Amino acid sequence: MENLRGITFMLLAMGGFAIEDGLIKSLTKDIPVSQILILLGTGGVIMFAGLAFLKGESFYSPQMLSKAFVVRFVSDILSPLFFLPAIALIPLSTASSILQAIPILVTMGAALVLGQKVGWRRWSAISIGFFGVLLIVRPGMAGFDPASILAILGAVFLASRDLATRVMPSGLSTIILTTYAFGASIIAGIFLIPFFEPLLWPTPTQWVWLLILTLLGGLSYAAIVIATRAGDVAVIAPFRYSRLIFSLMIAVLFLGERPDWQTLSGATIIIFAGLYTFWREQIKFRQ
Q: Taking a C-beta distance cutoff of 8 angstroms, is the pair 130, 266 a contact?
């Protein structure tokens, strides 16, 4: 039952994040990406800082001076700084497909940065996964869109955040880390102001959608925390890839996108490479 509960909350989280991406892409037609980041970051800070205050948690700890926390915070600034413009500029199906490379990037980073031993099988899976990314991006070919590089950079910094989280001091609570992550989004939005249209005052309808986005992001994050704490991680974690399925459904049904065979094939290759990598990690962990 715990595994079923974990899978359910993981699916809810991934569905929520996919809907959030779709709504953000729709809003970027009328509201600058920089302003969306600032407003969503502000809403998230208010939500989670309020929750931390009610629980009596401290907003500062000496552990925040650790290298892992600093790397995570910088990654939390840079990942939305690149990925949200990518959502605005390229098809959601393409951006979401590239995002699936995060697990293999984390495995590669664990080997190169954290010194973890990665065998030839996982290195082969990483190489195959990168081939899937190249199939989606198509550098040097007619279908190449330079903005897709932004999605790759966003995925790299999201993987960097996950790596930093692995070695984060245990005394920092999830709520405080999330509060700082939303604060980092505000900083990212400020950096992007010169590159997008001037800030504007949203309409009442847009304010409602922004509020829904903030609540959806918070609830999705809470759902993924519940999922990762329930049941067997080896059973639950692979359901993270359901985000791509939800994103493709939203892209096709609501955004009118028609992903080509290269995007779909590349996404499939990345997912299978990631699943194989995760399976090999579980075998090594049990040994």
A: no
Residue 153 CA: distances (Å) to CA of 75, 93, 188? 11, 17, 14
What is the C-alpha to C-alpha distance for residues 186 and 195, in angstroms, rounded to an integer?
15
Residue 169, sorted as left (phi over 0), alpha (psi -120 to 50) or beta, turns out to be beta
Give the integer Cα–Cα distance in Å for 151 and 94.
9
Q: 219 is written with which tokens?
A: 């609830």
**Domain that includes residue 271, residue range:** 2-286
Nearest C-alpha neighbor of 164 from the set 75, 281, 238, 282: 75
Under DSSP, the state recorded for 212 is H
Residue 269 dihedral angles phi and psi, to the nearest 5°: -60, -45
How many other C-beta atoms can be found within 10 angstroms of the C-beta atom of residue 94? 28
Per-residue pLDDT at 220 = 87
Widest distance between CA atoms in the chain: 57
The whole model's pTM is what? Answer: 0.90
- Assign 100 to helix, strand or coil: coil
- Residue that has been written with the tokens 């005052």 in this structure: 201
Question: How many domains, the chain?
Answer: 1
- Alpha-carbon distance of 90 to 125, in angstroms, equals 27
Round to whole Å and give the CA distance between 128 and 72. Answer: 27
Burial (CB count <10 Å: 0-12, 13-18, 19+), residue 62: exposed
**In terms of pLDDT, which residue wins out, 184 or 62?**
184
Instruction: Quickly state the pLDDT bin for 180 (edges 50, 70, 90).
Output: very high
Instruction: Count the neighbouring beta carbons within 10 Å of the beta carbon of residue 61.
Output: 15
Strands (E), the chain: none
Residue with tokens 């829904």: 212
Is pLDDT larger for residue 224 or for residue 216?
Answer: 216
